[in-house]
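User: Please predict the structure of the protein below. I'd like the answer in C-alpha cell form so I can feed it into my own downstream comparison script.

Assistant: Understood. Taking the following sequence of 348 residues as input:
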Amino acid sequence: MSKSEGNFIMLDESVVGHREIMMDGKAITVGWTTDATRLALGCSGDGLEDANFSCEVADKSILRLCLEIDFANAVIAETNLRTGDDLHFFDRVFNAQIDTCIENTKSAYDNMRYADVCKFGFFELLNYRDAYQNACKISDLSLHKTLVHRFLETFSIIMSPIVPHVCEKIWRDVLRKDGFLAKVGRWPVVSAGTDFALVRAAAYMNDTIRAARLKIIKSKIPATCVTLYVTNEYPEWKQKVLNFLAQQYDKASNSLPEKILAQVRTFAASDPMLKPLTQQVMQASAYAKSRLEDEGAAAFELTVPYDQEAVLLENIDYVKSSMCVTELKIEHVETEGALPGKPHIVAH
C-alpha cells in the first residue's frame, strides 16, 4: 500500500470501515474484523522486503475464520464421533500432520517468520483437517473424537497470537476450557513416538491418486483398472548425482553452493557413466535443487522412508474409489519410468 497510490488504509479503518457497498439499495461502510486484518498482515511477508498486504486475503479471511468457528461448534456437538485407541491409517496420518504443523509453526515463531506461521499454523493445518474429513467420508468413517479435540486445541493455541479473538472463542465457548487462553494456554506437545514418515506416505498416496485421475482424464478412454509400477531405488547414475549433491549440502543454511550446477557439470564430465548423460544429470540436479527449500536433506534421499506398496494396499478401497476404478494392480520394476515415491501409472 502507498499513500501516493491512494490505497492507504489506517489500522482503525481496516476494522470500522474503509469502503462502501450497496445493500438493499443503501450504501453502507464496511471493513474487516480485527482477526481478519491480523491474519492478512501476518500473510503479508517477512524480512526486509516491502510487505504485500492483500485485500483479497483479508476478505477471504473473514469467511475462513467464521467457518472455523462453525466447524468447531458442529464437531463438538457431533454425537457419532469414534473413540478408543484403535486408530485407522487416516487417524495416524492426521495426528502426525498436527505434530508437523506444531514443530514448523514453533520454528517460524522462533525466527519471527510470521508468513510461515500463517502458512503452517493456519492454512496447512486446516488443509490437513479438510483432507482428513474427506478421507474419512470416502472410507465411511466418522471422525475420531480425541483427534478432533486435539486439532481444535492445537489450532487455538498456535494461532492465538495472530487471531486471538477467534481462538479465545473456540477455547472458552466451544471447548469449555477454564481461564483465558492467553494466560493458561501452553504450547502443545508433540506426540511421543510420532511417525513423521506417515505425512510423506499420505502425500505419496494422494499424489498417486491425482496423477492416475489426470492420466485417465487425458486418455479420454474409460478405465476400470490402474496398474502402478513402483521401484525402491533410483538408477545408478542418479544415485551418483544425489550423493554428490548431498556432499555439497549445508544443513545449517539448508542450501547448496551458489555455483552448484557448474560443479555438477564438471563432476559429470569426469565420470564415464555420467558424461554421456550430462543433459539428464543437469535436469535431475536442477530438480533436486528446486525441492531443497521445502524438503531439505530429503531432496537427496536414495529411497523413501515408507513402504509404497503397503501404503496403497492398506487403503486399497479408498485408493480405488478416489481413482474411480474397480481394480488396482501394483508391480515392482527397475525402470526409468518409475522412481521412488513416483510410480509409473498405466490406466486400462
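That's the full C-alpha cell string. Residues 42-184 form a domain with the Isoleucyl-tRNA Synthetase; Domain 1 fold (CATH 1.10.730.10).
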